[in-house]
Amino acid sequence: MNETASGDAITEKTGQEPIFDTVTLIGVGLIGSSIARAIRRRNLARRIVAGVRPGRTANELRELQIVDEIIEDLPAAAAKGDLVIFCTPLGTFASIAEAIGPALKPGAIVSDVGSVKSTVIRDVGPHVPEGRHLVPAHPVAGTEQSGPSAGFAELFDNRWCIITPAPETDLGAVAQVIKFWEGCGSKIEIMTPRHHDLVLAITSHVPHLIAFNIVGTASDLETVTNSEVIKYSAGGFRDFTRIAASDPTMWRDVFLANKDAVLEMLGRFTEDLTALQRAIRWGDGETLYNLFSRTRAIRRQIIDAGQETPKPDFGRHGG
Amino acid sequence: MNETASGDAITEKTGQEPIFDTVTLIGVGLIGSSIARAIRRRNLARRIVAGVRPGRTANELRELQIVDEIIEDLPAAAAKGDLVIFCTPLGTFASIAEAIGPALKPGAIVSDVGSVKSTVIRDVGPHVPEGRHLVPAHPVAGTEQSGPSAGFAELFDNRWCIITPAPETDLGAVAQVIKFWEGCGSKIEIMTPRHHDLVLAITSHVPHLIAFNIVGTASDLETVTNSEVIKYSAGGFRDFTRIAASDPTMWRDVFLANKDAVLEMLGRFTEDLTALQRAIRWGDGETLYNLFSRTRAIRRQIIDAGQETPKPDFGRHGG
To answer: Distance, in angstroms, between A138 CA and closest chain B CA?
Structure first.
């Protein structure tokens, strides 16, 4: 095995045995390409195969040289994988699973990186033949950018990866997926798909929905122009545009897939917002002050948990 | 005049004549202390006086050595200023104006940094005697931190400062306030208080309210624990906690002062959110996709306008 000098981040190999012979990535955007880079960084697999549709992504991938083989035929790519990871938007899972299911190797593990987990069981599960193992996973990491060039090996470092296996799943397969994500730098949590979808609805899906929504509201006003919204965005608005710049297809599919949990959490959010609105209308400063003090404490806990940096970022470049 | 070597950021003096003899800051927190540092950086005044109440801020200020004199008596501090800037929460303006009004020098300019402008005219205006000039201003800049130690000289660089003088205001006084904020690094815009308050309601106040609200909602759930919310905050939630960590007193006062515009914008936001909620419930992916594509474009415009950095910041330290 090729032990390269340190300083070459892509091949910073640890010398340990690879966990898988071949990992096949189905779809290679921000997350897929970050996985490819993380695999190379720690030598987690002997070979990385990318299964992509012909087009722009395939060309971009060829230039990036972060995978060993690009196959523009999903079943043919899946047939090579000991671990096959769906890295496409959730809405594609059912049809891709149907297409690649019959091609899967005996003993192969099928996983994914989708932000909703109950639909993975529903859409992919029935297409995984006897003797192959479905172990859904969700690395809670990302950026507002998309496409294979936006990926980087460190994306998963110190982030949580939630694994949601069905109770009857082969424990050996679950253990290998855990080892794989630990190798990518993640910390692991196991939960049920239903609980995962509730947790992510409040920590990720509803925040994104609200961000998309206020950016839309602001751009539709008649009394304030778009150019004013853009000019004065440093007052707080720009923080929302960051997450409202996330991939539209991925997010459309997330909301359609996690409908029940999102509507439940959105109901709570709206109820609370109505109470705040009432406090403002009636000049109830105490209610406002009490909430605002409480939320500040939560920020501190997130920083203490290593999930955020304390650097003052409103000022962006200063400080 | 002392021409220090470059590298000393605080006294990077340009050699130009100061704009004011004495600037008095009434209250010195994040914004006040950033103004003091920006004054020193470009030699915008010969002397900086801080008018503060006895206590923690006064002690912190003494250690920081960013002002020339600390006076724990607001009228006595105001009496020294050629420019007197209110840097306290909006709710204090009326009583402070009443106290310092009679002490103001003939020809003195009174200004502020408040996030709502129509109430400044209402609360401060009546207490400014004949021959003194009220020129309200709002530098659209800040961080999620507070207190004098959190300030820095570059906070206003390339940010907008909105000035909202009444039509009858002395033009010389307005010109001096413009020059002062340009010296602090800001770009200047003039508008009416009413329009300012509408623009800020959508670009700053409602975004903050929503952020405070969702952080509150998340921390009150029974089905998802606080420690789960904190663990998985990298999925989007943590972006909201940043602005929900802003100063509670300041923000209580902003919402009480800008009630009408905030309620108006909040009504629009809620109406749009209800439409999105309906699209999710009925599986209308096209409506979702169209909105999400539109919001991405607005992000690009904000980056192009120099009000944000394109660096992928979900990944925080990577990329």
So the answer is: 11
